[in-house]
Amino acid sequence: MKQELQQLVDRGEFLPLMEEFYTIQGEGYYKGTAAYFIRIGGCDVGCHWCDVKESWNADLHPPTKISKIVGNAVKYSDTIVVTGGEPLTWDMTLLTSQLKANGLKVHIETSGAYKLTGTWDWICLSPKKLKSPTNEIYLKADELKIIVYNMNDFKFAEEQASKVSDKCILYLQPEWSNRDKMIPEIVDYVMKNPKWKVSLQTHKYLNIP
């Protein structure tokens, strides 16, 4: 039975669901928008400052049938955000097709480290140094979000920005635990380089999920 279930997960008919919740998008272009979040377990990118490390081990999160995930989502919002973990660890084709069949707008937050699957209305690409994005996703990203933990991340940000399309919106976002140190640096950098915008994790300031 375990092998059969794994085959269903590999085909994207089931996904390791960590959590799902209705809240306000706190980051990037759609901040302030009501959205239903689907957090998929599984990630091997391994950022030391990740604030959802409990998502990394997919085995800890129950394989859940796509129809059940979609059935819950349609009750709450017309905007769905698929996040992780790293959701592109898994095939997103069936999940996104069923969500869109219900008239929902479907967004993804991804490091881009794996093949882009699924059909998306908005792609937030947040590259990580430990595992580079695929070439394909750079030109499809609607927004580029670079997490700034230290000064070296500004160089990384410019390297990543050189790979996305001219239409991609560029964001610098302070890593939460180091925000007091890095916010002044980010503000100064954006003022000197206005192609960038500041993104904050406003949901944490609002004390919501």
TrEMBL record:
Name of the protein in question: 7-carboxy-7-deazaguanine synthase
Family matches, as Gene3D superfamilies: Aldolase class I
Provenance organism: Gilvirhabdus luticola
This protein's encoding gene: queE
Tagged with keyword Iron: yes
Keyword presence, Signal: no
InterPro entries from the UniProt entry: 7-CO-7-deazaguanine_synth-like (IPR024924), Aldolase_TIM (IPR013785), rSAM (IPR007197), rSAM_sf (IPR058240)
Cofactor binding: number and manner: Binds 1 [4Fe-4S] cluster. The cluster is coordinated with 3 cysteines and an exchangeable S-adenosyl-L-methionine.
Binding site residues for [4Fe-4S] cluster: 43, 47, 50
All residue ranges annotated as the Radical SAM core domain in the record: 30-209
Keywords per UniProt: 4Fe-4S, Iron, Iron-sulfur, Lyase, Magnesium, Metal-binding, Queuosine biosynthesis, S-adenosyl-L-methionine
Reactions it catalyzes: 6-carboxy-5,6,7,8-tetrahydropterin + H(+) = 7-carboxy-7-carbaguanine + NH4(+)
Subunit structure: Homodimer.
